[in-house]
Amino acid sequence: MDIFNQVLPYLRPSDAEELDPTQVIGEMYALANNQVEPVQAQKFAPELGIPYDISLQDMLNENQADYNATQRLVGYNPAALSQLNAQKYKANQRVLAEQFRLNQAQKDKVYGENRNILNQAKLQNLGILDQQYVRQAQALSNTKATTQAALNSIASKYAQNKLDNRKLATYENMYNYRYDPRFRAINMNPLQQFDTTVGGSTASSRTGGLAPGYEFTYNADGNIIGTRKASKDETAKNGSIVRNLKNI
Within 10 Å of residue 150's Cβ, how many Cβ atoms? Predict the structure, then answer.
């Protein structure tokens, strides 16, 4: 009997269970879909000005009209025409010089404005790219944080399951009962297993059960060490309990 009591704890099954995979579905989904999303950036493309030419053709036309009128007045005198041509050339050169200066000033203004616009656009694009880099780094950090949180959650659940199983294994040393898939307590003592599911009453699962009027004796550890004859009061009490259970 002592040897049997020493081996008995190794013969009883345990109600400890492994972690249900459904408990980590959320973490597995997070790990499967946790990917770094690219951060889009659209650069600023400015519209530049186009220089145009300034024409003083109207002033040249006026000079030509004055020349024609003066030419008729002098009667097309060759000597007078020579002096008139020199005056016309001088007047036209002044107009053309002024036209050239106006065109140069206008082009310089347009080119200067374009340079300022391009420089400002470069600064804005640098700011856009810098903001994109910051957001991309934040997206990468968030992805790593999500992965770390999912792994921590999985590890915590496995550790909690291991702790619960160890507690259950410790508590199972204190009693002989185990639970079936319907969570009904069954006595796992090989000498006498009682199934509490038969009509609400207890019945021996072995043919070698105790005879009426006898009962098991236990040691301080709760293990069976023998049998004894029950007293009349206890026998009557047990018989009344059985009758009451049958009447339920």
Answer: 19
Q: How far is CA 55 from CA 8, 87, 111, 113, in A?
A: 116, 21, 19, 22
Nearest-angstrom CA–CA distance, 135 and 128 = 11
Q: List the structure tokens of 49.
A: 């000005």
Q: Which residues contact 60 (CB under 8 A, 6 or more apart)?
A: 92, 95, 96
- State the pLDDT at residue 78: 84
Token pair of 154, please?
A: 């999985």
pLDDT bin (cut points 50, 70, 90) of residue 206 is very low
* Residue 34: both structure tokens together: 């946790």
Say if residue 8 is exposed, middle or buried (CB neighbours under 10 Å; 0-12, 13-18, 19+): middle
Backbone phi, psi, residue 185, to 5°: -75, 130
pTM above 0.90, yes or no: no
C-alpha distances out from residue 60 to 68, 74, 82, 83, 225, Å:
12, 21, 19, 18, 136
Please give the Cα distance from 145 to 165 (Å, whole number): 30
